[in-house]
């Protein structure tokens, strides 16, 4: 959907409703490009399903007569296509958003979707790196680049992710004018919500070193992290570098750029940080999201206990 590359089936009123919904998501809800793209793919898949299901391209009026069984048939189709529970849950979220928009704007009223229970996505625990693994990842990032400025860039980016607990998208969306230069910086996260994040001297130093070597000069609105051609750095490039680092350092597949954010939270908790503070630092809307880190930390404590406490030894040891 981002860039208008995802075609949608349907008559002219349905096409207009889809365009208006997309504009509302982008302008009113301030949805990210990633969310717009995901929701767009979900709606394209749904309208493709309806074309087969109804025997022709869907019309806006057709949406009001859909029954719960029709929505369940769509989910069944997506399941047979190999869609996982997390993606299925997002597909339902996309449909609910679109149908709520239609209802609020008096275009389509159909309560049937409310009778369909969305698949519950698996609730996995965050998978952080150990403190020494996180530091080794940062220290080794420069080894994969032949250009000194790109080596400094990768070091600065990974230092920022781990040192401030940022999402990769948050870091890559930063502009030069937002580069960390003091003890606190403002981060714009999901839903354009802003939060204050403390900044370590190591983060300031790493970013300054990178900017001092970067051959592309820009004003305050230029992207902070750029690729080889001077454009805003693509997340795929960062993820590729992390895969190379995993191979170099023997890290598990769970060692991703986002794992550095998980590591930030887990290591703060282990060091005595309280949940409410960590929630604010991460930009979590719900405390229950942050509470997952207590389960990770409890698992670490249990492992230490088993390995070190004499009373944890079995009798045959």
Protein architecture, described:
By secondary structure, the protein is mostly helical. The chain has helices spanning 12-27, 33-54, 68-80, 85-104, 131-140, 148-164, 168-172, 201-213, 235-249, 257-270, 275-282, 287-308, and strands at 184-188, 194-198. The chain has a two-stranded antiparallel sheet. Helix 2 packs across helix 4. The model has no long low-confidence stretch (mean pLDDT 83). Pfam families: Phage_int_SAM_1, Phage_integrase.
- Which structural category do the helix and sheet elements fall into? mainly alpha
- Overall domain count: 2
Q: What is the name of the CATH class of the largest domain? A: Mainly Alpha
Q: What is the number of beta strands? A: 2
Q: What is the second-level CATH architecture of the largest domain? A: Orthogonal Bundle
Rg (CA only): 23 Å
CATH homologous superfamily classification of the largest domain: Intergrase catalytic core
Describe this protein with a few key phrases.
single chain, hpI Integrase, Chain A, two-stranded antiparallel ribbon, 12 helices, elongated, DNA binding, Tyrosine_recombinase_XerC/XerD, DNA-binding, Tyrosine_recombinase_XerCD, Integrase_recombinase_N
């Amino acid at each position: 959907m981002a860039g208008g590359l995802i075609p949608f089936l349907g008559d002219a009123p349905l096409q207009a409703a889809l365009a208006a919904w997309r504009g509302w998501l982008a302008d009113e809800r301030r949805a990210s490009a990633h969310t717009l793209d995901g929701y767009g793919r979900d709606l394209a898949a749904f309208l493709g399903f309806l074309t087969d299901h109804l025997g022709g391209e869907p019309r806006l009026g057709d949406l009001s007569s859909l029954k719960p069984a029709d929505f369940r048939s769509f989910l069944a189709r997506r399941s047979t296509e190999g869609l996982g529970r997390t993606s299925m849950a997002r597909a339902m979220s996309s449909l609910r958003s679109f149908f709520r928009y239609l209802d609020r704007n008096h275009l389509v009223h159909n309560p049937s979707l409310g009778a369909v229970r969305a698949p519950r996505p698996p609730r996995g625990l965050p998978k952080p790196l150990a403190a020494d693994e996180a530091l080794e990842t940062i220290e080794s990032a420069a080894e994969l680049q032949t250009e000194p400025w790109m080596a400094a860039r990768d070091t600065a980016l990974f230092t920022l992710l781990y040192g401030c607990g940022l999402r990769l998208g948050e870091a890559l969306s930063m502009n030069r004018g937002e580069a960390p230069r003091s003890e606190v910086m403002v981060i714009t996260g999901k839903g354009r919500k802003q939060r204050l994040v403390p900044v370590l001297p190591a983060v300031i130093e790493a970013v300054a070193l990178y900017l001092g070597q970067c051959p592309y000069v820009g004003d305050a609105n230029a992207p902070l992290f750029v690729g080889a051609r001077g454009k805003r750095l693509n997340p795929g490039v960062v993820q590729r570098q992390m895969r190379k680092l995993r191979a170099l350092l023997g890290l598990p597949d769970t060692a991703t750029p986002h794992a550095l954010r998980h590591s930030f939270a887990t290591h703060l908790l282990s060091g005595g940080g309280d949940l409410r503070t960590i929630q604010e630092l991460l930009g979590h809307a719900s405390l229950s999201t942050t509470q997952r880190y207590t389960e990770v930390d409890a698992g670490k404590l249990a492992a230490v206990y088993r390995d070190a406490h004499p009373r944890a030894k079995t009798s045959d040891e």
